[in-house]
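Justification of resources, computational component.

The compute hours requested in this renewal are based largely on the per-chain cost of generating structure records like the one below. Each record pairs the submitted sequence with a full structure-token output. That output is archived, and it is also reused by downstream analysis tasks.
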Amino acid sequence: MASSFVVACVGKPSAGKSSFLNAVTDATAKVGNFPFTTIEPNQGIAYYPIACPCAAHNLSARCKPRHGWCQNGQRYVPIRLMDVAGLVPGASEGRGLGNQFLDDLRHADALIHVVDASGMTDDQGRETRGYDPVDDIRWLRGEIEAWIFGNLDRKWGGTVRRHVAIKATPVETLHGQLAGYGTGREIVQRALDRLGAHGQDISLWSSEELRSFVRVFLDCRFPTIVALNKIDMPDADKNISAIVRRYHGAKGVALRDGVSEENIVLTSALAECFLRKMAKQKYILYETGQDDFVTAEDKQPGNDGLRSLDDRVRGRLDNIRDLVLFRYGSTGVQDVLVRAVEALGYVPVFPVKSLANFGASAGGDLAGSSGCFQDCVLVRPGTTVREFARKLHNQQLDRAYAGAETVGNVKLGEDDVIVPGKNNIIKYSMQAGGA
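The structure output for this chain reads:
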């Protein structure tokens, strides 16, 4: 099975969102097996890199993922990426494609906000010079906040009083109000905890108190990564410095505009797209995330089959080296994806049928063709062993559940929480006749 969460790419028109999507989803060409049964036209597949346990168990040669791939112990796990229509100020009031944009967000677990760091496009996506890109971060967050606050505020008083009358808890009341935004009770509880609203009668909240809750709720519901794009363009340097200064120290419960300093990533999506194109055409050796590439002229192993470069291509590659790779260490696109998944706190889990060979068969023979660690599923933090069993096999495993074990034949309790590197390799047992 594949992980079911969705990361949405948002931003104004012409910020480089399409180039970013092409840069992070282009890796699908390396994999033939498609992990999702239904992919909408505005969705694609990207790959999240993690350390695969096959390396720790000296089984890299036998690692055969059903979805994605594993290369020298580096596992690439497929995730869904959604392209949301370009947003403009006034979207919360229906301007432009605002209603469609905000409706799409309900299906997202995290946001990647692609921002034009060069300041060469205004808030409508039109060409200009000297635009302050920090404005894009402010108003986009403001539009989402206005959308949710407006919906709550219109029905707040009477609806909440009815919930209070039936003695519903604040979590139950707010969850009922926010369920349409793909919100679980745990997110509502987390928002109330951050707000310090324990013991409050929420039916007495003023509009400003309700707005304060919405701000904190958005931080919990839509963790956001800011991809400062076009870092190799003129004026990008001064804009990047100004944005970093504004959000310096913003983290945890002290976010500003929903942005954490550690979740601002410098990117050049066009540079990544060009490097991948040149790698496919055998002009260079390059893997996403690397700080350099290899050409036929470089005296390095493995470049014997590379094609020679003409002056135009060589000049463009030299610019990417100087303005992106050498200055920033990478094009940044893979870092954005990693930060998005990490912001959600998702944990990779490897379900196996055998702890002897970590394979899909129950026997201990590694010579079979099934391979090991075939499946990897990213699950929400706090997921228990039994909850994951339901996620894997729905009612079948739930009805016949007999127990679970991890590496070293260590027994796992039903309520044990799955955590990275400890009990995230799991073998389930079923009662006789339950298979």
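The chain has 13 helices and 14 strands. The two ends are 18 Å apart (CA to CA).
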